[in-house]
Amino acid sequence: MFKLTINHIWVLGLFFNVVLLIISVWLFHSVKNEKKRWNKVNDYFGNIAKTVDSVRYGDLTKKINKFDLPDSENLTDSLNRMIETLRDREVMVNEYQIELIEQNRVLVAIINSLSDGLIITDKEGIILRTTDIVAEWFNTNGKNLVGKSLFEYIEVVNKRPLSIWKDNDIQLLHDKAANFTASTVELKLDDKQPRNIVILKNVTNQRELENLKEDFVATLTHDLKVPIIAETNMLELLLNGNFGEITNKQEQAIKNMQASNKELLDLVQTVLETYKVGKITLYKENIMLKAFIGGIIEEMQPIAKKTNNIIEFILERDIRVFADRFQLTRVLKNLIQNALSYGSPKTPIEIKIGEIPQYITIKIKDYGAGIAKKDIDRIFNKYYSAAKKFRKIGTGLGLYLAFQIVKAHGGELTVESKEGEFTEFCIKIPV
Question: Would you tell me which CATH number, out of the four given (3.30.420.40, 3.30.450.20, 3.40.50.2030, 3.30.565.10), belongs to the domain 114-202?
Fold first, then answer.
């Protein structure tokens, strides 16, 4: 049996001491290497943090330095590529911004060069933005307009809501001698906030020119009437034999001259009335339509016989209307004359009266040339005439004047037509 001696214990103690020394040396070196490694890791992440901060504040020229650490190279390359991509994107964004700024500058210059003024408002009329010319018209600085109510600077003549203005007459509060019109268009943006674009037009010069033109035409037509009436009276004297007997051929020639004179006088009168159309004075009375329209038809029958048309008066019951007898007569004669001119020969001209909610209606329908769809919206314009198409004489003033007379009554004049088949005008007079 083995026994430990002192020598054995001493040798064993020495062995353990050597082992502990070896372990201590190994641990020392391991710790020292680990500390160096952790220092490198700390330096690496410190460099990353510093670079990220620089990038965060807009410096995209920085890069992460490479360190001798396992698996760090891929991370370093990825982060540096990301920074390069951001730098490329920044360059691209800057180019786009420069382009947008230039486009915006050009757009603003174009808008400010327009003769019309543009105002962007909210639904209450608070000004959000304007063009330069508006500030000039309003006699103030453009920056002072933002946030102010549009109605601090203008007065609307007919008091219609802002959102439905269409060529509304307006006045500047500081200069009521100037003439402006305003229209609104809804501005639709992604934020869905209701906004309007108000388009202002300075029509002062246009109105002055129109007044001068109307005065000139009124004077001219008035002066033209004098010799025409004198000629008509002279022809009447000739027919009555005041200057001696005339032959049958002479009588027929004079009557033809009388008819031409009447047409010319009617034309001059129409021109005169057209230029006085904004000043129509109505003398309304209760009119029973059966007798009233019947009298007009009787007067128009000789013209209908020349074209072999029959004027049919369709009457379910007599209706009373409150209107100006003279002006309404002019409207009906004009529409019947049109129907005879453009309706096919030997076809009926139908006149029908009726009632719809709030209106009395008078319809005149012919079967003939009809009106093209592209012309429907233009036939009530001043000087528009379909006569040229059919080689007939016409100024286009008749329908314009009829439209204005019906409008002065608070009513409407509408038309429905199918080209080559029929045309039907409808007069609507308020009950």
Answer: 3.30.450.20
